[in-house]
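Hey,
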Amino acid sequence: MCGICGVLHFDSQPVDTTCLRAMNNTLQHRGPDGEGIFAEQGVGLAMRRLSIIDVAGSDQPLYNEDRSITVVFNGEIYNFRELREDLTAAGHILRTAGDGETLAHLYEEWGAAMPKQLRGMYAFALWDAPNRRLLIGRDRVGEKPLYYYHDEKIFVFASEIKALLRHPAVPRQSALNDSLNLALYLGYGYIPAPATPFVGIQMLLPGHTLEVDAVSGKINSKAYWSPPPIEGISEKAHYEEYIDRLRELLAESVRFRLVSDVPLGAFLSGGLDSSLIVAMMQRQNATVRTFSIGFEGDASFDETPYAEQVAQHLETIHTSFTVKADALELLPKLVWHYDMPFADSSAIPTYLVSQMTREQVTVALTGDGGDELFAGYERFYAATLFEKLNRVPRYVWASAAAIMRTLPEDTGYYNPLRRARRFVMAAAHSPGLAYFDLVRLFNADMIHQLTGQVDRAGWDFQNHFNGNVTLPDLLYTNMTTYLPDDLLIKADRASMAASLEARAPFLDHHLIAFAAQIPVNLKLSGSTTKFMLKQAARGLLPDSIIGRKKHGFGVPLGAWLRRDISLVRETLLSPEARQRNLLNLAVVTRLIDDHASGKRDTSRLLWTLLTLEWWHRLFIDVAEVVGV
């Protein structure tokens, strides 16, 4: 795992290597084990290395035989051994024993279509000197990030935005001064790719390459992969038709991700997804190290007893952490690593468990992607209820929601009143918007109160659908929006902040293709989420774990913020926040007061605004990027 960055001058002016090194050093947390730089004829590539495979022999940049092709690379190519055999048989000479060198030689064979041969998670940059062409690419699902900026003179790219901002040609300007963009963030809790919160900076989409012609200055982005369509309902289908192949593909995906020359383990929450990954690891590797984390403050958020149950059943070497975290102390560090306002508060436990896991291993397997592939979220079942209850007039739902708003709510994880109120409020909308109301942060009315703007987030989400909103539509949309723009951003930044490589077996594109073929009624069977995956886990895990109710990876944020609301008030109503004139501070004050009094749990909304404020302080208010 690494961090990469680079600069291309269209006029062939020499690259400032001091600036390039400054960009590269900003990525040191992604690769603390070494660095490499290549610079010639108006182009410069750089990387920071976290050594995982061929520790001693695969320092980057990497080259083909005559060094006309230069590569820097972030990630892992899991099928590199098979690729090396094919390339050697075709006459190529490989000088290392690692995975990254295959990219240079594959490019000689396949050109810009080279990523189609890869099985892995990656972001790469390749300089084709004879044709003066730069090719950058990103893995199919979006596990590894890549950002870029360009104007008529220069093209700059990096694994993280903070590295881009080290280059003087890249402007440090907020796109959230546009209240429509701000409304988008308030709804989603992130800025959907390819946009970012910075003017002029874009994110390369998953499954895409981008080719830059240094002679003409032309830039061409192209998709080489997109998720397959999701199979609909088949009443005749039975899970036994699919279970053997599903287990086979999942075992194969895990086996590929066990290749490492450094210590390896797994995150274990005690939920189905991570537990099944660990079970597959245990069948292939006699000794598995597992890690879980719990928090003081609210027992409803603590999953460590379930993780310990699974660890005992599978006989892993288990480490369970219990921490008393202060969310507001962690906030600046999290925002600095994410480079953007990022409202998913599960970034807190993901960061902390990554930090503590890194003390023992360098690579950790995760259960990310299981919910997206196999309909694991309860909101998918809620969406089917919306369709069944469609005959109830929407004004009835709206009236019920108005009554429920007056009731106080606690901050526990399973808060039935909060869940019921969210469902009732959502049911008052059209199907696509009803589903979005289950996952969004600020609703349309709150966005209007805060910014005076229309609900751009809801409009944007509904654009993903044509007509009816079916469960396959929702699964596909989650795969292409929430997964890459939230979950995988969270996993990458949190793990890389600790110099830990996270690998997600569920996101192998062969497994994704097979899961798409499984009829959707075998994923969500009645009210049973992940039905197919639960059948695949029979005999590998205790039934009590398989049948557990879905529990997200969260922290007792509501209790933490309610414990000392003064710090929230001081931040969100500070002179700096007032001078921005972005939000209606009377509405912000009401959110703070409602949370402090126990009238409502507004912690998710407050966290959304806190990350926004700290992003301004760390990236917009300052003259240059500084660490925290």
